[in-house]
Amino acid sequence: xxxxxxxxxxxxxxxxxxxxxxxxxxxxxxxxxxxxxxxxxxxxxxxxxxxxxxxxxxxxxxxxxxxxxxxxxxxxxxxxxxxxxxxxxxxxxxxxxxxxxxxxxxxxxxxxxxxxxxxxxxxxxxxxxxxxxxxxxxxxxxxxxxxxxxxxxxxxxx
Length: 158
Prior knowledge:
Layout: H1 2-20, E1 23-27, E2 32-36, E3 42-47, E4 50-51, E5 68-77, E6 82-84, E7 91-93, E8 99-103, E9 112-114, E10 125-127, E11 131-132, H2 135-141, E12 150-154
Parallel strand pairs: 1-12, 4-10, 9-11
Antiparallel strand pairs: 1-2, 2-3, 5-8, 5-12, 6-7, 8-9
């Protein structure tokens, strides 16, 4: 019995280690998100929408996507979330899709990777600063990440 528990524990630990070694890279230049595993293989790809304005985030409300490396510190169920995009259409249900992956940042608390009610916006600069994915893509992405996964957002020139 004890040997069986040790084997199960080793399997769980080794799965967790390999899982934790996946990382996300967002290319602002290519408007794309990649999941890279520990062997540097791309295991997931999706087009994204990022902040309307170019450059690194410098203040709340500047509509820029931050650059750098940040861990995911919360994976939230966002299906009931609403938002008014100030586009004349009022508050939209499901504005953030099924999930919101909150990134841990020193100066900003509401930046993340999430789904969208605007799937046609992929490949554009149309968000308020977050990284948007189609809802089906964020649902697939969840399989490859967990709290603690590192997210690197590359500047436009890289």
